[in-house]
Amino acid sequence: MIDSSRHFLPVGVLLENLDLMAHNKMNVFHWHLTDSESFPYTSAKYPNMSLLGAYTPAHTYSIDEMKKVIDYARLRGIRTVPEFDTPGHTGSWSHAFPNLLSQCYNTNGQINQLPNIIDASLEANYDILNNFFTEALALFKDNYMHFGGDEVLDDMKNCWYNNAQVRQRMNGLGFGNNTAKLLNYYWNKMFQMIDKARPNTKKIVWQEVLDQNVPAAGTIAHVWKGGAVDEVMKEVASVIKAGHNAILSSCWYLNYITYGADWKEAARNDSDRVLGGEAAIWGEFVDSTNLIPRLWPRASAAAERLWSDPKQTTSPDMAWPRLHEFRCKLLVRGHPAEPPNGPDYCPFEWNPLPPTRADNFVNDNRFILLSLLVSLSLTLIESHAFIL
């Protein structure tokens, strides 16, 4: 998963990462396109969403650029699964639709934060969502789409429960002051719209949606919580017990870095009983300057663990020589993969810049001298030929 909302990532960087994914046999590009910070996705139906919601008009992906990314991935055996995180993490949506989000208050009735969650009590908002997702489903033709759903509890309290207008509409819907029922209502409406717009769409949500007992039959839970392996497996077990498939990311949040060989944690984890695993890199402190070295070869350890025989990939000590060798191969291919395990070297060291003018000064002078000699020789030959 790559986050191109917190920091915009140019198309060229996305394409380079797709090449690296192909080198590592990773076959799903989870594209976290929008978040509260910015809205780089261009909608033909609602162009103001990116014109007003992106950092600048230059920090957007045109429809043609997104098609290029999708096609580039497809030709490398990679499916592109977009994520439009809702109902929370939607602050950037409000620039085009001020009424789409609900205002947030503290218990004293004072505004205490910027709007960040869709007002699920306002029926007109579902028309906007229906049009938006119908268009997105037509662009991203893969059967899977990610609908987010994480980190909404605080917003449900501040922006729904503490908002008198939302509470009034909740009472009109028969929910009383129960924001959990409003959240349930939101997801039921959303999934009905998605099923109508494109039947058989496989819907992925972050695990909180199911943790909050939203009855979403057939949805896939994306598990990202849990620290220790036992905690992670407990989360996965609860999802499976509820009848859902799971995607596991808890083990592979690669935006977190520690001093030393932190890739070893990626080599230890198992992938039993889930559809697959996903390495994720969030963009708060990642942009085009450090995306590739931050991801690789650390993501390679996750790729090996997910693809390979568990009996042969449980030892980080045995994995280290393979990872080091593969990192050197990535350098040869022109990718700035960072050192995975302390002091060492590769036979070929990656050079980030072409030779400078100073480095080429001697060669440039030799080239100029050679050019003059060639020109002089040609002139003499032509003159001699003319005289003859």
- The CATH superfamily name of the largest domain is Glycosidases
Shape: globular
- State the major sheet: 5 strands, parallel
Strand order of the largest sheet: 6-7-8-9-10
What is the overall pLDDT average? 86
Assembly form of the protein: single chain
Give the low-confidence spans.
259-264, 266-272, 357-372, 378-388
Active site: 151 (proton donor)
Domain Glycoside hydrolase family 20 catalytic: 1-309
Pfam family, one: Glyco_hydro_20
GO cellular component, one term: lysosome
Features:
388 residues; alpha/beta; TIM Barrel; 5-stranded parallel sheet; 10 strands; 10% strand; disordered C terminus; glycosidase; Beta_hexosaminidase_sua/sub; glycoprotein; GH
Topology overview:
Layout: E1 2-3, H1 11-23, E2 28-34, H2 48-53, H3 63-74, E3 79-84, E4 104-105, E5 111-113, H4 124-139, E6 144-146, H5 153-161, H6 164-172, H7 179-197, E7 202-206, H8 208-211, E8 220-223, H9 229-241, E9 245-248, H10 263-268, E10 276-277, H11 291-295, H12 298-307, H13 316-332, H14 361-387
Parallel strand pairs: 1-2, 2-3, 6-7, 7-8, 8-9, 9-10
Antiparallel strand pairs: 4-5
